[in-house]
Each structure stands twice: as structure tokens, then as C-alpha cells.
From TrEMBL:
<dbReference type="GO" id="GO:0006777">
    <property type="term" value="P:Mo-molybdopterin cofactor biosynthetic process"/>
</dbReference>
<feature type="binding site">
    <location>
        <begin position="130"/>
        <end position="131"/>
    </location>
    <ligand>
        <name>substrate</name>
    </ligand>
</feature>
<dbReference type="InterPro" id="IPR036522">
    <property type="entry name" value="MoaC_sf"/>
</dbReference>
<dbReference type="GO" id="GO:0061799">
    <property type="term" value="F:cyclic pyranopterin monophosphate synthase activity"/>
</dbReference>
<dbReference type="InterPro" id="IPR002820">
    <property type="entry name" value="Mopterin_CF_biosynth-C_dom"/>
</dbReference>
<comment type="pathway">
    <text>Cofactor biosynthesis; molybdopterin biosynthesis.</text>
</comment>
<protein>
    <recommendedName>
        <fullName>Probable cyclic pyranopterin monophosphate synthase</fullName>
        <ecNumber>4.6.1.17</ecNumber>
    </recommendedName>
</protein>
<dbReference type="Pfam" id="PF01967">
    <property type="entry name" value="MoaC"/>
</dbReference>
<feature type="binding site">
    <location>
        <begin position="94"/>
        <end position="96"/>
    </location>
    <ligand>
        <name>substrate</name>
    </ligand>
</feature>
<keyword id="KW-0501">Molybdenum cofactor biosynthesis</keyword>
<comment type="similarity">
    <text>Belongs to the MoaC family.</text>
</comment>
<dbReference type="InterPro" id="IPR050105">
    <property type="entry name" value="MoCo_biosynth_MoaA/MoaC"/>
</dbReference>
<keyword id="KW-0456">Lyase</keyword>
<dbReference type="InterPro" id="IPR023045">
    <property type="entry name" value="MoaC"/>
</dbReference>
<feature type="active site">
    <location>
        <position position="145"/>
    </location>
</feature>
<feature type="region of interest" description="Disordered">
    <location>
        <begin position="1"/>
        <end position="44"/>
    </location>
</feature>
<dbReference type="InterPro" id="IPR023047">
    <property type="entry name" value="Mo_CF_biosynth-C_arc"/>
</dbReference>
Amino acid sequence: MSETPDEPSNAAGSSEAAAADELTHTTDDGDVQMVDVGDKPDSERRAVAVGEIHLQPSTIEAIREDQVGKGDVLATARIGAIQAVKHTWETIPMCHQIPITNVDTDFSLAEGRIELEVGVETTGKTGCEMEALEGVTTGLNVVWDMVKAVEKDDDGQYPSTGIENVRVLAKEKERT
């Protein structure tokens, strides 16, 4: 393929090729595979992820005052987040089933948004950042589901509602 001004230079292409060579979920032929972690030593691992859902201020107040018709929004979202952490291996195709030793959830209510931080701990051969991310996204989806009736506008749309800034804050590993 010839290089055009809109395509990366050879140097960038070389770094992209090197990154592709480091992909662990594909074979040399490009087929998808699960990574073999059998020879890795067990380690104590922790990952923390965070994200936020933007809501109308009146919805935040209803959550704070436990006035949402479906029930306790944050308690339900906490259960959903923990369940998602425990079932991550069932929803992410190449994710290993790992022994979850602890899940921490922390909700922060602010003007127009709720932030959810999920910390996951395990002792095993692979990390738990995907579990933390699944906990955050599912927990925030549960919040949305619990409040969707009051978040809808007159046309049934959600102009003020959005899940954003989902990311891993920390990933730690200590050899046991």
C-alpha cells in the first residue's frame, strides 16, 4: 500500500506493527485465542475503575431522598455492580473466570451526576481490571434503569442522561 499524506508514516506503521505483534489474544495466523496463564504464579491483584452517569438535578435529589418509585437506586446498583464483577468471564469472551476475593463499591452524588468507583481484588494468575470495568458499567446502567421514567423528556428521549468517563484508575499486583 502506498503512503499518502493521510496515512501514518513508516515509523508510526512500524510501532503499530510492533504493538500488533504483542497482542496476546490472537494466534500467529490471526485467530482469536484465550491466553494461557497456567504457568504464571499466583499474585494478589487489585483493580479500581470509575465512571459517572449524568442525570437531572431533580433525579439526583430523588435518589438522595430515596423517592424513586422502583426502590433504593444505589442499593440496587451496588448489587448489580457486584453481580457483574462475578460474571465478567461470561460476558467478555476471552476473559478468565477468576476467584473474586473482594468487591468495593463507592457512589458519590454531586450536582447533576453520580460517580461510581469499583475496586476488585483477587488472588490468581491474571488481573481483574475487566471485572472492575464491568462493575462500573453495569452499576451505572442499573442506575439508569431505575430512574429512566423520570429522566425521559416529553418525547421519551434522554437528553440529560449519559454514562461517561469510564476508565481504570489503578491496577496493582503483588507476588504471593
